[in-house]
Amino acid sequence: MDNCEELLPECLSFVKGIVDSEDLPLNISREMLQQNKILKVISKNLVKKCIELFQEIAENKEDYNKFYEAFSKNLKLGIHEDSQNKTKLAELLRYHSTKSGDEMTSLKDYVTRMKEGQNQHLLHHCRSAGKKRVSTTKEGLKLDESEDEKKKKEALKERFDGLCKVMKDVLGDKVEKMTVSDRVNHEAQALRDSSMAGYMSSKKTMEINPENAIMEELRKRADADKNDKSVKDLVMLLFETSLLTSGFSLDDPNTFGNRIHRMLKLGLSIDEDGGDGDIDMPALEEGDADAESKMEEVD
User: Fold this and answer.
1) Are 259 and 237 in contact (CB under 8 A)?
2) Which intervals of the chain are annotated as region Disordered (predicted)?
């Protein structure tokens, strides 16, 4: 609904309908409507009815899959904005799990399938439903794995140990330590912070994904020549990119931009010392500046 913030929150903006009430006065201004107690009661009941409707749709798995595909972002926004109804909205969320395959499961169904004695579930920043919460973004996550998988993981860590040392030397105090990630991830690298309280200020741990082609090529270059300037640029670029994707801010965006331009030139085989099409324009002379100023004053 358009222009109905007083009736429905932003997360329910996709809901369309007509609200008919005999309790609202006629010929009333928008400002008075915003302070109208009756309108607040109507809004509360509308949200309640919407959630009840969503719960009813959820009883039919096929219908709810279509609904969830279209409006899951709205439900998540509602959890963030509506503290009063976030528990009910959280029950409407669906997740992929290691057992669900292509299908999605609710937290309630997930808990009912847990084995006897299992007291952990791999959800982060979500209600724990009475179970111990384990973060998938932090070091120490343990999953069942065979001896072959353990040996493979140890071999990968040993293989990338040299690259981790090179990256730590390049980054210095910017990171507390470098690790080879145990987590399944498509990204080349990720940053994590051990505590949410110090999220923006504390030192970060940088994890690299040994399965990623970028990290494999970077490892080869670092093994060949750890003083290679392109290796240092790539390490800094990966670090600054992971800062942005992890929600941090850059201390020096200009240097980040220059580094990207330098890597673009390298990728396009452009001579670093050659001519540059982005030549700065000369400053306006004083006479020209005065003339332009006078022209702007003319109507």
Assistant:
1) yes
2) 129-152, 273-299
